[in-house]
Amino acid sequence: MTNSEMTNPTPIEEPKTLATKLEPYVSFIGPMAMILAIGLFMAIAEPARYFRFSNINQILLDAALYMPMAMAMTFVITQRGIDLSIGSVAALSAIIMAFLIKQYGFPAPVAALIALSLGALMGLINGLVITKFKVPDLIGTLAMDLVYRGFALVIAKGLVLARFPDMVTEIGRGQALYFIPTPVVIGLITLAIGYYVLTSTHFGRYTIAIGSNPEASEMTGVDVDRHRIYAYVLMGTMAALAGIMLMGKLNAIQATSAPYFNLHVIAAVVVGGTSLFGGRASIIGSLAGVLLLSMMINALVTLRIEFFWQSVASGVVIIFSVALYTWLQKKDRDGSGGLSAILANPTNSKTFRLAVLIIGILIALLAIGAGFSGEVKPSG
Amino acid sequence: MNKQNQIADDKKPVVAMHGITKRFGGVVALDGVDLSAYAGEVLAIVGDNGAGKSTLIKILTGVYQPTQGQITLDGKPFVMGNHSDAIAAGIDAVYQNLAIADHLTPAENLFLGSELTSSLMGMTVLNNKRMKEEAARVLKDRLGVQLKSMDVATESLSGGQRQAVAIARAVRHDNLRVLVMDEPTAALGPQETARTLQLIKTLRDQGLIVIVISHSLDDVFEISDRIHVQRRGKCVGVVKTSETTNEEVLGMIVGAKQAA
Questions:
Q1: In-domain check, residue B97
Q2: Which one, of B209, B220, B224, B223, lies nearest residue B253 by Cα?
Q3: How far does the CA of residue A233 sit from the closest CA of chain B (Å)?
Q4: Domain spans of chain A, in order of start
Q5: How many domains does chain B have?
Q6: pLDDT tens string B146-203
C-alpha cells in the first residue's frame, strides 16, 4: 500500500455538542454572567449609589490591587501549585520599603525596586522550598507565610508607618488618565504582559504543559523544577507590587496588613476558570474574577450589609464556582443520573444518613436547651 | 513481501545490539541479547511479561545503559549516555502513555520541549504560527493524518489521533531512522487499531525502521516483517513473519518450542 492511498482517512467524527463548543469560553462567560447578574441586581436594588461615578472608581481601585497577583497566581495554579504566602510577602516587602524611605531616606523609586526584588527573592525561596526540599506547596507556602509575617512583625513591631512621598501614593491611588486610577493602569498592564507571556514564551507554554502532564513534560525535556520556580518568583514579585500599591492606597502600612490576600486572589483566579487541577489557564478569566469579587464586596457595602458577611459571601462564591467547573468538566465524561440516582448509591446514602444524624442531634440539643431556658442570668 | 526478506538477508543492519546484558542489582533482566534491525522493516518484539522487552528497548533508546554488550549504528560502535543521545542519532520512541500534555494543542505538543522561536525586540518568543503550519504539514505529509482543527486541546482528539501527534513528534526530526513503539495499540479500539497499524506501514514504506513491542500477535502478524521473541531475558529466536505461524510464535513465547 502506498502512502497516497492511505492519506486523508475520513476525519474521525467528533461529537460537537453545545458544551464542547462553549467549552473554551466557559471561563470567560461564567464570571461575566455573574458580573452581569450583580450589575442587574444592583440596578434594581441600589442603582443610584452603586453606579455613581465615584463608586465605580472605588470598585476599580479595589480590584486593581489584586490584578498583578491574580495574573501571577494564574501561572502558579496552572502549574498545579498554590501560594498561600502572598499576603505576608506583600506586607514584608512594603514594610522594608517603608523603613528604607522613612528611616534611611532612600529615594522612593529605589526603595520600590528593592521591594520588588525582595518579593522576587521570597518567591525564589518559596520555589526552592517546594522543588528542592520537596515540601508540598500547600504546607511550604503556609509555613513561609508564618516566616515572612514573623519578620514583618519583628521589623515593624506594632508601628504603623504612614505618610509617604507622592510617588508612592500615586501608585496606590493616583488618577493616571482623567478618570482611570493609576493602579488600574498598572494592574491591566501586568495582566496584558501575563497574557503575552502565557501564550508566547517558553515559560508560559511549559506552565501549561507542567500542569497538564508533569511526567510528559519531564520526558520531553522540559526543566520542570526550574519553570515551577519561575512561577513562584513571578508570584513573589507581583505580591510585592501589590504591597507597594496597598501602601500607596492607604498611605500607611503595618505588619498585619494584607491578611487575606492569598484566599482572595486564589478565589478570583479559580472563579475566572483557571483549573485548580492544572493545565487550564485563563488570564482574562482572572481579570473577570477580580472584578467580580470587587463588585460583590462593594455591593454588600452599598447595601449596608454588615462587613462580616463579606467573608461568608466570598467563601460561598469560591465553593460554587469550583463545584460548577468540576461539574461542567465531569458531565461530558459520564452522565449524571439526577438526585434520586445519587441517593441510591450506597456510599452517598450513608453520607446522607450521617448528615441527617448530625442535624438531628443539633436540633435535639437545641430543644433540650430551650426546655431549660428561662430568665437569663448575667454571667459573672 | 519477498522484497523485505531479501533486505534482511542481503543488507547490513542499520542498528544492532550485540550480547546485551542488563542487571538490576542481582536481577538479570537481559542476558546476552542480540538484535539487529534493517532499513525499511517493521521488527516486532514479543514476549511474556518480564521477558525483557521494555528493558531491551530502553537500552536501545538510551534510557538505560547496558551492563555488558555493545550497540552499533551503521556498523560502528555507538555509546549513549541518555535518551537525548539516541534522539540525536536518529533513534526515538513513542511510549504507551504517549507523553502528551492534554491541555495543549497538537502543534504545541508536537514541539513541546523544542519549540520554534523567533526574535521580537531582542527577546526570544514562540513562533506559534510556524509551529502550527509545520505540525499540520508533518501530520499530513508523513502520517497522512489531517485533523479537523489544529486549535483544539489534544484531549479532545481520539486515541488514534493523539497517537499520531505523539508519532509526529518523533517523525518531525528529519534524521529519524529508528522509531520504537511500545504497545501502540493497547489502548485503542478496533478502528483506531487498524488506523495505527496502517500508520506504521506508512512509516516503514518511507524507509524508517519501526520496532514495535506488542502483546497482540494478530497485530504483529499484520504489520511486522520479522519477529524477535524474548523469553526470560533471552532472545529465543528471530523469525520472518512470512515463514512462521501464530502457533509457532506463541510456542516460543511460552517456551514450548525453540526456534532453530
A1: no
A2: B220
A3: 20
A4: 32-330, 338-362
A5: 2
A6: 888 888 899 888 888 898 999 999 898 888 999 999 988 888 888 889 988 999 999 9
**B68-73 β-sheet, strand order:** B27-37, B15-24, B68-73, B76-77
Q: Are residues B76 and B205 in the same domain?
A: yes
Report CB contact under 8 Å: A205, B124. no
Q: Which three cell numbers stand for residue A138?
A: 500547600
**Burial letters A367-377, b for 16+ CB under 10 A, else e:** eeeeeeeeeee
At A311, list the grid cell. 467573608
Q: Which three cell numbers stand for residue A298?
A: 462593594
C-alpha cell read off for A156: 515593624
Q: Which of B103, B125, B198 to mutate to test the interface with A (most CBs of A within 10 A)?
A: B103
Closest partner CB to B113 (pick from A9, A208, A222): A222
Torsion of CA A363, A365, A368, A372, to 10 degrees: -120
With a CB cutoff of 8 Å and minimum separation 6, the contacts of B64 are: B22, B55, B58
Summary count for chain A: helices (H), strands (E): 17, 4
Q: What is the CATH number of the domain that holds B48?
A: 3.40.50.300
Condensed to tens digits (0 to 9), the pLDDT of residues A316-361 reads 887 887 787 777 766 544 445 566 777 777 778 888 899 999 999 9
Q: Do A199 and B140 touch (CB under 8 A)?
A: no
Handedness of CA A329, A330, A333, A338 (dihedral sign): negative
Instruction: State how far residue A207 is from chain B, nearest Cα, in angstroms.
Output: 11
Residue B189, Cβ neighbours under 10 Å: how many? 12
CATH architecture label of A32-330:
Orthogonal Bundle (1.10)
Least CA distance to B87: which residue of chain A? A220
Rounded to an integer, what distance in angstroms lies between the CA atom of residue A70 and that of residue A76?
Answer: 10
Domain with B160 in it: 104-174
Output the pTM of the full model. Answer: 0.84
By the 8 A CB rule, do A342 and A349 touch? no
Q: Looking at the DSSP assignment, which residues form a beta bridge with residue B36?
A: B16
